[in-house]
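Dear support,

We are seeing what looks like truncated structure output for some complexes. This example has two components. We would appreciate it if you could run it in full and send us the complete token output so we can diff it against ours.
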Amino acid sequence: MSRYPHSLTRLLALARRAPRTPSEQSEPEPAPLCFSARVVAQARTERRRHTGLVAWERLCWFGAGAAVVVCLVAGLHAHHATSQPSGLELLLTQAEAPLFP
Amino acid sequence: MDETPNKPERPARGATAARVEEAALLAAVRAGDDAAARALVERLYPCVAAVVRAHQPRRDDLEDLMQETFLKMFTRLDQYRGEVALERWVTRIALNTCLDRLRRQRARPELRWADLGAEDQTFVEGLAEERPQPDADAPRALALLERLLAALPADDAWLLRQIELEERSMAAVCEDTGWSAVAARVRLFRARARLRAAWRKLESPQP
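Here is the complete output from our reference environment:
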């Protein structure tokens, strides 16, 4: 089965027979004056910016990691603290007990 | 003395020397040597220019695209492991840069029957008939096909030109672009479907 309608297949076949415009540049084209210097200077600037971004990203990850550790430590500490009743809780328990049993 | 066995060694030795020189240049660039980086740009410029000239979306984009290609090359240079020749690797970056630029271009409005001149309408009607088409009609066919492709997404048009017009193999397109065979087949399938749809719309005269 053809991929295209018959008329489109014929159009493609005919278009393939059309003469193409020859490539403008047949010989190797040398780099324009100062092109390489300009590109290298820009690449250096980009690299510096990229390095700065990478450093900032690392700092963010470090900060996020530190925050997770702090949260975990705080959570553990809170768990420990709540396993033993505080003075106030003991007092409240006493207050809830009936005065005249 | 028979010198025949020595003959093939010459280009191989030359190629090896070039590879060694290239590796030294790359090492110097990675170490931050600006002179080596400039030499690398000048060495690769002709092959990158050839690719960009062949695939550039617009004439005025040439310098911009060349610069973008080399900047990408420097950014990704640490990822280059030497599995393919450096020129091949860089021309792949150049081609993909051109394709990215093509993707950003807006396609022209679709081609309608009413947009065709009387001669083009007769030509399209003649395509549906079985009579042989003379070679003299080939430029008209190419021009019409180009108008049809201009209404498709530019990267689809590029792929269709490569496969349907230039009759290049999928393997060659994959080699040039770095696409996987499956990805290329999917892209081609979609591009062909869009071309079919555009042709059907053109063929059905609007009221």
